[in-house]
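help with this:

***
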Amino acid sequence: MKKVLLGLAAVALVSGCATKEYVNDQVAGVNKRMDGKHAELNGRVDQQGQDISRLDGRLGQQQSAIDGVSRTAQDALSRANAAGKLAEGKFVYEMNISSQIAFKFESSELTDAAKAELDAFAAKLKADNKNVFIEIQGHTDSSGSQAVNMKIGQSRADAVHRYLALNGIPLHRMNSISYGESAPIADNKTRDGRMENRRVTLVVLQ
């Protein structure tokens, strides 16, 4: 009887050891898998951190590119970015054409002098052969009502838009907008200031 009991005890002991080893193996397997998951998760977090750093860098570069640029050029950049028009989202340059030489008196008909400037502008764009977007802004002085000035600014910007399109600049690469009298660059109280404020601005973005 004692031998039987001793035998049973030995079997139980061996069985208990086997069960413990099995449990330890299972726990080790789970821990290994969890370590792998943690490493994978940490890798993803690190990658996201790098992506955010790169994005911050790009935003910083864009901000540096538009520091010191006119308010209306910055407005144009914001609009073009919002509309998904740009590849890089940066300001390239802007050019003002005085309405005094660009249009015939009290009209939106382009003068020969303005056409010559626009021809040169279009030729430069074609020679550079870059994926650019142009916002054409019409500006006026403060003479007359705001509504009339907005209309004049738009008609003159549209005239430039149309001329460039007829000279090979794709329509989807351009937009025209009127600021009317709202964005002066000189004092409207003087004759020279009013002349300076009457202008069409070409903002080139990439």
Notes: The chain is about 60% helix and 15% strand. The chain has two domains: 1-67, 69-205. Helices lie at 2-66, 71-82, 99-102, 112-128, 146-166, 191-197.
